[in-house]
Design goal:
Belongs to the short-chain dehydrogenases/reductases (SDR) family. By secondary structure, this protein is α/β, with parallel strands linked by helices. It is 47% helix and 11% strand. The chain has a seven-stranded parallel beta sheet with strand order 3-2-1-4-5-6-7, with helices on both faces.
């Protein structure tokens, strides 16, 4: 069938902003966190969910926060700025589209200028989901999710690691998922991208040991953020341009594509930024490589332990052993 053009980013932003799930998170109170005074934090994907709640939590804990999002100006940027101004927070909003090289370059340059040339903590939070069976994922959907969830992190790393290496210190948090370790059929390429984030992050952690920079992978479970509604926009567009026979071949996985509302999830989205703030406040050299975050089941923890044990057994006594042990011990 003929493929219509996918929705523009402005259309996606407008559609997401109109959804009823947003207000509850938009004005949610942010709980206390350990003191983060003296830190300068850049977070991507701060328009909603973990990013927005986190931006306010870190700023209220004393950090200078550079909250980035695409498509500025937009209502989410205005309300975040207003809330920060009301509370006198050191919070700045900068436009960064992690899928765009020029936007990352311009946005990180502006962020570094606001930070006086030094950003000590990068939180790679921006990400999207597109559901459906693997064969249904056309190349447009495939490129979009990998460009956002994986290449977006790589762009941000290359933009901000040089100044961290020069300072011989820094922290990087990459937001993965339970689904970066376990797989649900019909989940599209989301797990594939998050598995990639897991591997990229662990390799990076070893390589940054000599530079005094630490990496932590955050693995959230399901939370009632706007990710579900945003995902429906992308998934709905994919379903619309997919061949009917292909969709029929994979029922029941394709039947509900674009209709997930996130209902039944009541965990507090602030769990994730609280965990990040707690890890930030830990002494250097004691911070974990991975942290599973959810009040319910955390099936990935068993895999995390086995993975760590295997890495230590395989390379712990090799010439690379000091790097491996520094991360896992």
């Amino acid at each position: 069938m003929t493929e219509p053009s996918r929705p523009s980013r402005r259309e996606l932003i407008a559609a997401a902003a109109a959804l009823t799930a947003a207000p509850a998170l938009l004005h949610a109170a942010v709980p206390d966190a350990p003191s983060l005074k003296g830190r300068t934090i850049l977070i991507t994907g701060a328009s909603s969910g973990f990013g927005r709640v986190g931006a306010l939590l870190y700023a209220r804990a004393g950090a200078r926060v550079i909250a980035t999002m695409r498509g500025v100006p937009r209502p989410e940027a205005e309300t975040l700025a207003a809330e920060a101004a009301k509370d006198g927070l050191d919070l700045h909003i900068v436009e960064i589209d992690v899928t765009d090289d020029a936007s990352v370059a311009a946005g990180t340059a502006k962020a570094l200028a606001l930070a006086g040339g030094r950003i000590d903590t990068l939180i790679n939070n921006a990400g999207i989901g597109i559901t459906g069976p693997v064969e249904v994922q056309d190349m447009e959907a495939t490129k979009l999710i990998f460009d956002t969830n994986v290449l977006g992190i790589q762009r941000m790393l290359r933009a901000l690691l040089p100044q961290m290496r020069a300072a011989k210190s820094g922290q990087i948090f990459n937001i993965s998922s339970q689904l970066g370790r376990v797989i649900v059929p019909g989940g599209g390429h989301y797990s594939a991208t998050k598995f990639a984030v897991e591997a990229l992050s662990e390799q990076l952690a070893y390589e940054l040991v000599p530079h005094g920079i630490e990496v932590t992978i955050i693995q959230p479970g399901g939370y009632p953020t706007r990710v579900w509604q945003n995902r429906n926009v992308y998934t709905g567009a994919l379903k619309q341009r997919s061949d009917a026979a292909l969709l029929a071949a994979y029922e029941p996985f394709t039947k509900g594509m674009g209709e997930e509302d996130g209902s039944g999830r009541s965990a507090d989205p602030a769990d994730v930024p609280r965990a990040i703030a707690e890890i930030m406040a830990m002494p250097a050299g004691t911070r974990p490589l991975r942290r599973a975050v959810h009040p319910g089941a955390k099936p990935q923890e068993a895999i995390n332990k086995i993975s760590s044990d295997v890495q230590l057994a395989w390379l712990g006594e090799s010439p690379l052993g000091p790097l491996i042990k520094a991360v896992h011990d």
